[in-house]
Amino acid sequence: MAARSLHRQDSKSSAKILLQEYCSNSSIHGVRYFNREGQSWCESGWWIVVFLLSVGSCGYLINKVYQKWDETPVIVSFHEKTTPVWKIPFPAVTICPRTKWSSSWLNFSEQYDVIMSDGIDATNRKTLTEEGLCYTFNGLSSEDLLKVKTDPDLFAKKRSPHWTLDSGYSSEANLLSYPYRSIGPGALAGLSVMLVAQEKNLEYGCSGPVQGYKVLLHSPADYPQMTNRYIHIPLDQEVMIAVKPQMIQNSRKLEYYPPERRQCYLSCDRSLRFFRVYTQDNCNLECLTNYTMLRCGCVRFSMVRSEDMPVCETNQISCMQDAETELLEMGVLDDENETNFHTECDCMPGCTSVDYDVEITQNEFEIVEWAVAYGEKRKDFDGVYAAHLKIYYKNAQLMKQKRSELYGITDFLANCGGLLGLCLGVSLLSLVELCYYCSVRPLMLWKKWKQEPTKVDNIGLPEVCLLSTSEIMKQNVRNSGIY
């Protein structure tokens, strides 16, 4: 019993000696003042309280840095260099009339021959939208855009083997590669379209009081949705659209992040049911299609659909409109952390996307007076309305944006190291030193104590002199020369 008590006492004394040695030699600021020789308990307590406050402050600040690194690891910034506009595709242009019309009255001008040697045949690029039959220039073919079968007369016929949304144009692409691209800024390198309508085709019952055309500029990889953001082209007007492209790309380092952390999808992250190319607009359209099918048991005639999805009848138009409104309202509820059909669609932006901002100018287009000035007869233009549309890049370069790491692992460790140094004066070697005194140093002292057995001679001696463990450790510490 006495031996056990002595062993416990020796262990406590040894730990105390080791702690005193660590405090005397530690490189961490303030630790050496915990138990200095001749120091009062009041002074020691004051330094301990200050040290604990510093540790708490440092832990709080490191936790804030970790939260920022964990919750917002991505920052969107401008690219270091500008990019020429010929490295991105010219916007896809979808034109829908507000009146009944014939395809022979819509002609793309030969001014676009700056880019192409062949004329543009608009009739080979029909597109079905919610506005009815429209024409799309520079959109992807159905084989490149869709997974489902469509009418062979719809969509572009040309394939795009040398361009993808994520990688851009390949090294094998030339100026005639599809989708087409502009060689520079200005109207000469842009697209010119003459839109002609006859008075006998004007109709106000369905179109309402506004006549003319709807024009949508969108990425070639997007399926056109005219109700979202179209530009109105009135009759007898010339409309000039100066395009300012906006492009966001993804840093390669972010490819290893999960989509939830980088807040965007790579093409390999998300597969859509109807579309081969993931974009946020395509995902939203597919979401609306699925919800309309769930809500009404049918889909709109213009929606991309599978063969088992019936087309809604005219008496179900109100149901389709209600479904679209309800889905928009669900998008507002996303901010309130409520799970609904919209959240299940999970249509985050694509990591690579191309958008086209526009500046619009408009003037009178007096085609009749112009034709008469060139010797044409005025009566030949009776009942004819015309509009002229020009689309071109405003600048020769664009400033790309990129998603990149806000805090990589190196930045996070550097921030933590700076806070530890600021609050405690701690470095990596300080942590190694702490591990040394908690593991290596006690083990080495114990082994040294084991190798020096106590010499006891019980024969002829009235008393037994035993060295305690603490005395041996004190002696070892003194012999080691470390204070």
Mean pLDDT: 80
Helix content range? 25-40%
Separate helix tally: 11
Topology as a string of helices (H) and strands (E): HHEEEEEEHEEEEEEHHHHEHEEEHHH
Regions with little confidence, pLDDT below 50 for 5+ residues: 103-120, 455-469
What's the CATH architecture name of the largest domain?
Sandwich
The CATH superfamily label of the largest domain reads: Acid-sensing ion channels like domains
**Tally of distinct domains:** 2
Number of strands: 16
Shape: elongated
CATH class of the largest domain: Mainly Beta
Q: What is the compact description of this entry?
A:
By secondary structure, the chain is α+β, with helices and mostly antiparallel strands. Helices cover 33% and strands 19% of the residues. The two termini are 34 Å apart.
Description:
The chain has 483 residues and is α+β, with helices and mostly antiparallel strands. The chain has two domains: 2-73 and 408-454 and 465-480, no CATH class; 78-279 and 350-405, Acid-sensing ion channels like domains (Acid-sensing ion channels like fold), CATH 2.60.470. It has eleven helices and 16 strands. It has helices spanning 2-25, 41-71, 142-145, 259-262, 280-296, 317-333, 341-345, 367-373, 409-424, 428-450, 469-480; strands at 74-78, 83-84, 92-97, 106-108, 126-129, 132-137, 163-164, 168-169, 191-198, 213-218, 231-233, 237-250, 353-364, 384-393, 397-398, 401-405. Strands 1, 4, 9, 12, 13, 14 and 16 form a seven-stranded mixed beta sheet that branches. It has a five-stranded antiparallel beta sheet with strand order 5-6-3-10-11, with no helix packed on it. Strands 2-15 form a two-stranded antiparallel sheet. Strand 7 and strand 8 form a beta hairpin. Helix 1 (2-25) runs parallel beside helix 11 (469-480), helix 2 (41-71) runs antiparallel to helix 9 (409-424) and helix 10 (428-450) packs across helix 11 (469-480). The longest helix is centred in the N-terminal third of the chain and has 31 residues, at 41-71. The chain is elongated, with a radius of gyration of 38 Å. It starts with a helix and ends with a helix. Mean pLDDT is 80; it is low at 103-120 and 455-469.
